[in-house]
């Protein structure tokens, strides 16, 4: 076999057949690379979805998180968790072909859960099944629901079934909410730390910058409401408080399992978020409607906050063309804020699916001429950058890399955009600094592109599709 002619798709896909993050964006699945139209199991390119669920478990106090999957997957997930500052250990139940096919693996998981279920240390043990055990049908639903007062929650989060790591956060959050709701229906449950809120609360679904819930609380105050817990919660007892709300806000609109639990608890779920002037006005109105607040109180809340947001937007304008893409689920909110800051945003791609809770944002963006793509692939996002050639591209790592190769300033969504406040007056000016600084760097990118011209491209890329002349094949 010609060594320059071997099939690399298997290597790119990884031994488990994982196609997530295929470097060229091609549909790589198992042993064969396919250029065919994506099928039902093709997912947007993203990191391993299980990372989202694992992150939720690891951030929760008195919760043990246990993975069951191939060792290479668990290594990657553990590495990434600690890279992102997890302060708790990751449990692992390994398997081999024999334990998998004989059913012994389920017994190993059950034994591990029994060993961990110490009520002095844990409120809950979470078992996360990865691709291979899930595909093999390891029945986590048969685990005991509770051991010594420690709740046991098993979830399947395979890459072939959960679209993004963001949605995997919802899978675990939804399972926990369902468990907590069942407990609350059966009898009294633990009160939140510091006691119940004096005012009716609005639970906030979706991880956000720590200052955002505080800002939202201030916006709700004139309506006689308070910001409730943020889901995913940091503690089991917060789940009860989150369910005991006047309404739930799907700040991140892909929390479909969470929303289902709030609706089952008789709580209305409100979409969009208080971003920018228009977004905040509409969101406060929708929250007021959902919670039965009098119109004059809603108007008071709007009048108190909207001038400050308008002033912040006007004080920190963004003048440029920006494409937005990502897999966090907040892409539409960021685009709204950019547009209200003065930017032109022709394209928003999100790896998250369309849900009713992002419809207000989609509709608003479309009135501004924005093309919104749900379940956007890497190819969609890169095509947008190539066609539009924006002043700044916001995106995932490969999108940022592609843009920078084109001498287009680019910002990584997760580290540089998600790590900033978005809501209310604090959010209104927060993106301008980083976006304007990126745009001002355009000349440096041109200089770098000229300096490195030809390096790593074409014949200099070190990749040949045929044996170079004069080189003998090994076969
Ligand atoms: S669990 Fe599945 S999606 Fe995650 S790394 Fe392993 S094979 Fe890939």
Describe the protein in words.
This protein has 20 helices and 16 strands. With 475 residues, it is α/β, with parallel strands linked by helices. The strands form 4 sheets. Strands 4-3-5-7-6 form a 5-stranded mixed beta sheet, with helices on both faces. Strands 14-13-12-15-16 form a 5-stranded parallel beta sheet, sandwiched between helices. Strand 1 (27-29) and strand 2 form a beta hairpin. Helix 2 packs across helix 7, helix 11 (276-291) runs antiparallel to helix 12 (295-315) and helix 13 (331-340) runs parallel beside helix 14. The longest helix is centred in the middle third of the chain and has 22 residues, at 165-186. The protein is flat. It binds iron/sulfur cluster. Residues 16, 18, 20, 48, 50, 69-70, 73, 76, 130-131, 158-159 line the site of iron/sulfur cluster.
């Amino acid at each position: 076999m010609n060594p320059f002619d071997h099939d690399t798709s298997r290597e790119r896909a990884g031994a488990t057949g994982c196609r997530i993050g295929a470097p060229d964006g091609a549909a790589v699945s198992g042993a064969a690379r396919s250029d065919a139209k994506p099928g039902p199991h093709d997912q947007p390119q993203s990191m391993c979805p299980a990372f989202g669920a694992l992150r939720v478990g690891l951030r929760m106090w008195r919760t043990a998180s246990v993975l069951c999957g191939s060792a290479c997957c668990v290594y990657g997930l553990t590495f990434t968790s600690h890279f992102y500052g997890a302060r708790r250990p990751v449990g692992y139940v390994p398997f081999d072909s024999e334990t998998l096919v004989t059913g012994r693996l389920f017994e190993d998981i059950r034994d591990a859960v029994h060993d961990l279920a110490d009520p002095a240390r844990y409120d809950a043990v979470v078992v996360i099944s990865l691709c291979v055990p899930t595909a093999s049908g390891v029945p986590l639903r048969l685990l005991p629901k509770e051991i010594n007062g420690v709740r046991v929650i098993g979830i399947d989060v395979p890459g072939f079934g959960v679209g993004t790591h963001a949605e995997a956060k919802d899978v675990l959050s939804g399972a926990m909410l369902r468990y907590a709701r069942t407990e609350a229906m059966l009898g009294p449950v633990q009160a939140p730390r510091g006691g119940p809120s004096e005012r009716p609360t609005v639970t906030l679904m979706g991880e956000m910058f720590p200052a955002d819930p505080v800002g939202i609380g201030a916006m709700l105050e004139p309506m006689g409401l308070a910001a409730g817990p943020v889901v995913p919660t940091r503690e089991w007892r917060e789940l009860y408080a989150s369910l005991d709300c006047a309404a739930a806000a799907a700040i991140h609109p892909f929390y479909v399992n969470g929303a289902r639990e709030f609706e089952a608890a008789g709580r209305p779920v409100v979409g969009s978020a208080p971003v920018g002037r228009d977004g905040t006005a509409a969101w406060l109105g929708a929250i007021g409607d959902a919670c039965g607040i009098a119109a004059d109180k809603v108007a008071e809340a709007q009048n108190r906050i909207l001038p400050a947001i308008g002033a912040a937007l006007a004080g920190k304008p963004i003048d440029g063309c920006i494409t937005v893409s990502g897999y966090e689920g907040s892409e539409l909110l960021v685009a709204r804020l950019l547009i209200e800051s003065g930017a032109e945003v022709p394209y928003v791609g999100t790896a998250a699916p369309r849900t009713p809770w992002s419809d207000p944002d989609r509709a608003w963006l479309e009135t501004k001429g924005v093309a919104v793509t749900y379940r956007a692939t890497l190819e969609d996002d890169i095509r947008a950058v190539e066609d539009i050639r924006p002043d700044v591209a916001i995106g995932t790592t490969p999108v940022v890399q592609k843009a920078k190769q084109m001498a287009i300033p680019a910002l990584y969504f997760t580290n540089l955009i998600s790590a900033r406040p978005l809501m209310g007056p604090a959010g209104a000016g927060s993106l301008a600094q980083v976006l304007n600084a990126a745009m001002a760097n355009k000349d440096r990118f041109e200089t770098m592109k000229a300096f490195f011209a030809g390096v790593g491209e074409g014949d200099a890329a070190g990749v040949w599709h045929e044996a170079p002349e004069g080189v003998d094949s090994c076969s």
